[in-house]
Amino acid sequence: MSNLVFRAYDQDELDRQMNARGTVPDIGPIIADYAQESARCRAELPCAIGVKYGPKPEERLDIFPAQGKTAAPVYVFIHGGYWRLLDASDSSFMARSLTAAGACVVAVNYGLAPATPLSEIVRQCAAALGWVADNIARYGGNPGHIHVSGSSAGGHLAAMMLSPDWQRAGGIPAGAIHSASPMSGLHDLEPVQKSNCNAWLNLDAGEARRFSPIHHLPSVPVPLLVAYAPSETEEFKRQSEVYAAASAARGAAVSVLVEPGTNHFDLPLKLMDDRSALFAGTARLLGL
């Protein structure tokens, strides 16, 4: 009998469960869509690109003010890429639809693993949210109505921003984060630390727990939309469901969305479609 590494998984099966790429034939065209649609938004919409939130070169934001609205709710997106890929320049494809609906959109950039450890990535994201709370009014955003979102590793990072410890570390005022929508997030890093993904994260068991949102739920719950694709691996699905249930048990108003016809990678692109369930759920939390 094979040795079990996590839950009912031996090492080979755990590695397969944590391999989101294995759920699609080719991620290349989808990643290209991220970049192309984001570039189109930068070229065609009013925006401020590469706004610094810290001294390091990677500490920058792309900001898209709401169309025709001031004191707009703020949608902050943290990109995925298993903490080691992508950039803010790939991450503003939803700006056209959301700014047209009345939201200010902010795409966060951060340093990538393995050169940047996860502790620093989380710190940078918290610093970015702190900067947004302090400065977004200059771009027509409401600093008291910030919605934080992200996909995959970005879903993990968005959920980490709800931790009161990281909010204090980033100088995020209490109550500034109004709601959140983690998509396909990794909320328990124990299986990540035990899988081949740890080759670029280099977490020990203590760090895996420290940076797991499931162990750092917000003391003051905020409304959540927890979304994932029907074709995710069972472990990715379980992580979203367990996080949603734990948050609801703490008193959060939680909606779980399995967006039909999507996969792990193209799910966030549904934010471009104002007829999609993902857009509708996000807009509801933004108050649009």
Description:
This protein is of the alpha/beta class and 288 residues long. The protein has one domain: Alpha/Beta hydrolase fold, catalytic domain (Rossmann fold). 36% of the residues lie in helices and 19% in strands. It contains 11 helices and 10 strands. The chain has helices at residues 11-17, 28-44, 95-101, 118-135, 153-160, 164-169, 190-194, 198-201, 205-210, 234-249, 277-286; strands at 4-6, 9-10, 48-52, 60-64, 72-78, 104-108, 141-151, 177-183, 224-228, 254-258. An 8-stranded mixed β-sheet has the order 3-4-6-5-7-8-9-10, with helices on both faces. Strand 5 (72-78), helix 3 (95-101) and strand 6 (104-108) form a beta-alpha-beta unit. The model has no long low-confidence stretch (mean pLDDT 97).
Topology:
Blueprint: E1 4-6, E2 9-10, H1 11-17, H2 28-44, E3 48-52, E4 60-64, E5 72-78, H3 95-101, E6 104-108, H4 118-135, E7 141-151, H5 153-160, H6 164-169, E8 177-183, H7 190-194, H8 198-201, H9 205-210, E9 224-228, H10 234-249, E10 254-258, H11 277-286
Biggest sheet, spatial arrangement of strands? 3-4-6-5-7-8-9-10
Low-pLDDT ranges? none
**What's the CATH topology name?**
Rossmann fold
Q: Which structural class matches the secondary elements?
A: alpha/beta
The H-and-E topology, N to C, reads as EEHHEEEHEHEHHEHHHEHEH
